[in-house]
Amino acid sequence: MSVSKEAPVCQIGAREHLPDQLRGLALMGIVLVNMPFLALTNAGFVPSNTQGLADRVAEFVIVAFAQGKFYLLFAFLFGYSLSLMLRRRTADGLRRFRRRLLGLAVLGIGHAVFLFIGDILITYAILGVALLWFVRRDDRIVLRGAAVAYLLGVAVLAAVVVSVANGPQGAEGSGFVADPASLDASLRGSFLDAAAGRLASLPGILGVLGALNWSFALAMFLLGLAAGRRGVLASPQKYAALWQWLLITGIGIGLPGGVLSALLTVTGHESATREALGAAVGFATAPALTGAYIALTVRWTKRPIMALVEPAGRMSLTGYLGESILLSAIFCGWGLGLFGQISAFPAALIAIGVWFALDVFASLWLARFHYGPFEWLLRAWSYAQWPPMRIRMRTSMPPDQKVDAHRNKTIDAMMASGGLRGTAPTAPERGRGGVASKAGSNDSSPGMSR
């Protein structure tokens, strides 16, 4: 692996702000959705951790407005990023993307075994291979593929609901683990106990997540790929009609679907069929609410609040893994050991605090470094070279301005030594080393190469 000696230099406006803002928001939603399984029980929300009014409100809000929505938002941005990678580096973009998928798979397996069994990176790595087939297809085929993937996902959800309705009732919880009690016990043990428990449960949960989520994730991958080709987030002002349509669809379909899903889930803990139906309604209507979130972010992109979430989005991989690291350290037996000891509402507050802490960390980190820690590792693997990490302070100005700056320093030195006593250079003196008075406005300002 070679070493890249030159720091990448991005001109002002080279990096799109909207994708980073969306990633930052997605991280907030994802930490809330993952929280029950990291903090409460692998059965998810159950009566024992949602007894109080605040707990039930927290469950309702998370299920209605976050569950399934931000996972799909991340998937959309994954496809969008692929289009940018291929646009900028057409010669070897596919090779680097394949290496990136392999790197994500390795990170995902490590994440699932050592931190959180509900990992999404493995899904991205697997579905990313399918996404490669669409790279050389036109947008019409890509969009048709997205529609087919979505309809397939809805069909699978319907089959699951029918299967659950014909099975035994009374199963408690909304988790995806076959034996949540056993996995819960391992999380209360040592670090190796927890890892062994996750490893034993991983094949089963991959099958469940594959059946329930992969079709919808692939659909959002493809929509992101098409959106990236058309520069939808790079030039959002050109797509005002699209944003309006997404808002209407989100309010008309996504919002009622999310609320109905939450009502069925919150009131259906004693009925497996009711819970399965609630989950199915939520997942099936989630893309509509995800689209509305994108449209709202486009409208609010220049508001100060969006600048606050952007740093987390620039380090989304580090943020995603960091959420699991911090929550595991707080709740697992090898850390503070709070797993299953608190209810849903305080756990949600802790999850929000974790997101905020990582957002602040990202802001401080990016003031000194080009990439987040895990972004740097993945980029090094994808590009087969070590990218520069630390931001170097340097002057960045045209050569003629550098000459003028040098002349200014010379004149300042002469004035300080008495060689020039407040005499301004006349026009003929310009040819003998003087500078025009306005040259000082082009003073050498240290800049950060990004």
UniProtKB/TrEMBL annotation:
Pfam family, one: DUF418
Domain of life per record: Bacteria
The DUF418 domain, residue ranges: 227-384
Entry keyword set: Membrane, Transmembrane, Transmembrane helix
InterPro entries, A to Z: Bact_Transport_Assoc, DUF418
Polar residues bias spans: 439-450
UniProt name for this protein: DUF418 domain-containing protein
Source organism of the structure: Micromonospora tulbaghiae
